[in-house]
Specification:
Elements: E1 2-4, H1 7-13, E2 19-21, E3 23-29, E4 33-39, E5 45-51
Antiparallel strand pairs: 1-2, 3-4, 4-5
Length: 55
């Protein structure tokens, strides 16, 4: 997915372009956990894990 890469994010990602591409993979671990993996062209990977608890 093509995304805008503002100045501060350029520093964070170490990608000096105004536009970049990221590949997103989502995994659902039934019933209450989701893992999101975001891959950038320079090899950087962000992993976000969300765990929900029913009330």
């Amino acid at each position: 997915m093509g995304v805008t890469n503002p100045a501060q994010q350029q520093q964070n990602l170490k990608i000096a372009l105004e536009q970049t591409v990221r590949t997103i993979d989502g995994f659902w671990f039934m019933p209450f956990t989701v893992k999101l993996r975001i891959n950038y062209p320079n090899g950087l990977v962000h992993i976000i894990v969300n765990t929900m608890t029913p009330i």
